Amino acid sequence: MTSLDGLSKVQLDEGVLRITISTADNGTSLDGEGLDQGTRALEAVGDRIGSVLLVGEGPNFCAGGNVRAFAAAPVRSEYVAEIARVFHAFVRALDAVTVPVIAGVHGWAAGAGMSLVCLADVAIGGPGTKMRPAYPSIGYTPDGGMSWTLPRIVGIARAREILLTDAVLSGDEAVRLGILSRLVGDDVVQDEALRLARTLAAGPTSSYSGIKTLLSASTTRTLAEQLDAEAASIAVAADSPIGREGVDAFVEKRRADFASIKEVRA
């Protein structure tokens, strides 16, 4: 991997934008520098990426905010507000991308870490992965969009229970609830997440974009409205370079070469 414009915690390789959201420093708490670099990269790379990969470096994906720093701040409200501003700028940039977002979730994903897992399109964990909202334990309320994403994943009633009781979720339970997509061996979580991110980065990017757009809008549309949107979207896809290549490859009984089309476009 090579660094992107000198940003040490953001790297671009084979179409995968890899963002380090925590390090072993400060107990794998949320890394403000990584978030800021991630936001800048997401806003700058455009068509250069085919997927986004969120990872933590250390024993955990992300153990949440740096609570010791909260306690040491001269004015806690101002300090936490600034952390939330940086975090939410990253969340907005991540939500705006049209390519798949993958999270490799090893160890703990607590607080802000769990919020980021809920934002991913595909989140891969291991048997040792654990998740916890963590906000009530320090008398805080959620950030990073958890109060918006979690009910949409597990339902409002279960979201209430998880948040109010500050529930600890095992990897198996997180998969059952749909927060994690699947489990692999603890020692290969990041490898499998990277493999998937590379596979998706080489895939039909415009198709993925259309899928994400349709899914996002489906929550506020009637079935009739969604059918109209699907019809319009699939018609556009049929005459796009990606759509033409996919159909032609199927008819010609060969593997579709979506990557070369994206290279020409770029």
Automatic annotation (TrEMBL):
SUPFAM superfamilies xrefs: ClpP/crotonase (SSF52096)
Pfam families documented for this protein: ECH_1 (PF00378)
GO molecular function: catalytic activity
Species name: Rhodococcus oxybenzonivorans
Superkingdom of the organism of origin: Bacteria
Protein name: Enoyl-CoA hydratase
Family statement drawn from the similarity comment of this UniProt entry: Belongs to the enoyl-CoA hydratase/isomerase family.
InterPro entries in UniProt: ClpP/crotonase-like_dom_sf, Enoyl-CoA_hydra/iso, Enoyl-CoA_hydra_C
